């Protein structure tokens, strides 16, 4: 049984290294959006290249995050966590030194692999290291500090882009890793799951990531309408079908199909796909809209986004407690509708937009909707499966959210009619943005309708989340299996 106490020096070192590791991956999911216009200018990149700068990271992270957790359980959580930190730092260095957009995109894909190794490992280390009496408090501190990191991410990104330059958005990870990895090796005990057995589902992970990559490519390049794009899209669909086939026939699949026998689990994941697709498209385009059209500096644009994550950080735990009393159906119905209203309010943000009257109201409504929505979403995922599979269910839900976001970043500019150079023209980008926000709002309304029709109150005594405070806008918080 784990016996490290939170108040001990070792306990504090464990908390520090897990916060540092998870914060690297979490920050890179939010700060890069603010840097995109400057990246495009410096590297003479098209809109498609900017989409890939975001999505290359998300493809490998979403496709491999379940495998990353399994590797830690089998070979040692500390070992895989440190490997992920070092890998992430090396890929970040390559991102910061990239001379072309193509190299940057490849480095971002490598970053996602590192993120898939360290993200589930940071929470698993806490679960496996701390005494049961201190575990919930340690998880709460870990998620709270991670929420602070997510909240300041856009501001930090804007400050770096405005000051030393966009490359420091990536280079900053290197000294953090140089601090994090030695602390982990010295102070974090190694742990593994003795129950882990069977072969790793490497084929399933590869097919999942490949299908996401091919479909993303087809959506981003669909403006050309070439035969190669059509063939790529068909290959992506074929890879998705092959992934489902492999998962149904493997003895130890990465994504066990029988977990979807729970109607509640299936329903809440459909809601997740809708809401995080809208969120992914919203934050990608809003960071560009504020700079390209409204004329904000990167620092001003990053600061402008703070209210949404700050509200989540301050009130997410209270929202979860309220949902425990009302049941998840009401917040999962109302939350997406508030977020949809926020996206329609963003239609007021154009050239010379005033922050207090045009931007802030939309972001406050957006934050309120996410506060109401995200904590009950996580709780419902955990409550819809057996306690022994709670960590798996959370990982699937987290991967689904990331996959939805990357598909939205690929598809939304196409649906809104953005040309390859749209972000260089304030007029063209503003017109496309005004077409994109109602699309995002419509997807959120669909998510709300699904929640109202399909989500029910879970049975009493089911698993409750330990990560009650969070501020990540790209995916719901992860939950790990609790050791015995």
Automatic annotation (TrEMBL):
The chain crosses the membrane at residues 12-36, 48-68, 80-99, 105-126, 138-162, 168-188, 200-220, 226-246, 267-290, 296-315, 327-347, 359-383, 395-416, 436-455. It comes from the Bacteria. Residues 14-459 form the Major facilitator superfamily (MFS) profile domain. It holds the Pfam family MFS_1. Keywords: Antibiotic resistance, Cell membrane, Membrane, Transmembrane, Transmembrane helix, Transport. GO terms for biological process: response to antibiotic. InterPro entries: EmrB-like, MFS, MFS_dom, MFS_trans_sf. Coiled coil: none annotated. The keyword Transmembrane applies. GO terms for molecular function: transmembrane transporter activity. It is found in: Cell membrane. One of its GO terms (cellular component) is plasma membrane. The keyword Membrane applies. It is a multi-pass membrane protein. Its main location: membrane. This is MFS transporter. It comes from Streptomyces corchorusii (Streptomyces chibaensis).
């Amino acid at each position: 049984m784990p016996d490290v106490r939170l108040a001990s020096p070792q306990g504090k070192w464990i908390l520090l290294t897990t916060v540092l590791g998870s914060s690297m991956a979490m920050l890179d999911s939010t700060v890069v959006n603010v840097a995109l216009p400057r990246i495009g200018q410096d590297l003479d990149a098209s809109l498609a290249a900017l989409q890939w700068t975001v999505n290359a990271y998300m493809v490998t992270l979403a496709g491999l995050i379940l495998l990353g957790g399994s590797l830690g359980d089998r070979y040692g959580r500390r070992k895989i966590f440190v490997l992920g930190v070092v890998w992430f730092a090396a890929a970040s260095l390559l991102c910061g030194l990239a001379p072309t957009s193509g190299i940057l995109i490849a480095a971002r894909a490598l970053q996602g692999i590192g993120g898939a190794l360290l993200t589930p490992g940071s929470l698993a280390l806490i679960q496996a290291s701390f005494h049961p009496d201190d575990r919930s408090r340690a998880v709460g501190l870990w998620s709270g500090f991670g929420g602070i990191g997510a909240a300041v991410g856009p501001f930090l990104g804007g400050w770096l882009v405005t000051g030393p330059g966009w490359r420091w958005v990536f280079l900053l990870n290197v000294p953090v890793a140089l601090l994090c990895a030695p602390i982990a090796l010295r102070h974090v005990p190694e742990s593994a799951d003795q129950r882990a057995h069977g072969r790793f589902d490497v084929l399933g992970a590869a097919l999942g990531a490949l299908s996401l990559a091919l479909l993303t490519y087809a959506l981003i390049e669909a403006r050309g309408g070439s035969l190669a794009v059509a063939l790529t899209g068909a290959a992506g669909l074929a890879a998705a079908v092959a992934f489902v086939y492999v998962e149904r026939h493997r003895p130890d699949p990465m994504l066990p199909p029988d977990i979807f026998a729970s109607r509640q689990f299936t329903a809440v994941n459909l809601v997740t796909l809708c809401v995080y697709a809208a969120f992914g498209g919203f934050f990608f385009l809003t960071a560009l809209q504020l700079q390209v059209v409204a004329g904000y500096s990167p620092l001003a644009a990053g600061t402008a986004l703070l209210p949404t994550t700050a509200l989540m950080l301050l009130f997410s735990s209270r929202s979860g407690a309220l949902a425990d009393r009302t049941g998840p159906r009401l917040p999962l119905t109302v939350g997406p509708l508030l977020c949809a209203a926020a996206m329609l309010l963003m239609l007021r943000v154009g050239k010379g937009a005033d922050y207090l009257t045009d931007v802030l109201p939309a972001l406050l409504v957006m934050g309120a909707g996410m506060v109401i929505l995200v904590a009950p979403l996580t709780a419902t995922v955990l409550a819809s499966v057996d306690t022994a599979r709670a960590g798996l269910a959370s990982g699937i839900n987290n991967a689904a959210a990331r996959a939805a976001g990357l598909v939205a970043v690929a598809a939304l500019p196409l649906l809104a009619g953005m040309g390859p150079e749209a972000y260089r023209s304030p007029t063209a980008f503003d017109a496309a943005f005004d077409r994109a926000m109602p699309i995002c709002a419509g997807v959120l309304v669909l998510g709300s309708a699904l929640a109202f029709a399909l989500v029910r109150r879970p049975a009493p005594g089911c698993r409750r989340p330990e990560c009650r405070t969070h501020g990540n806008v790209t995916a719901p918080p992860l939950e790990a299996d609790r050791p015995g």
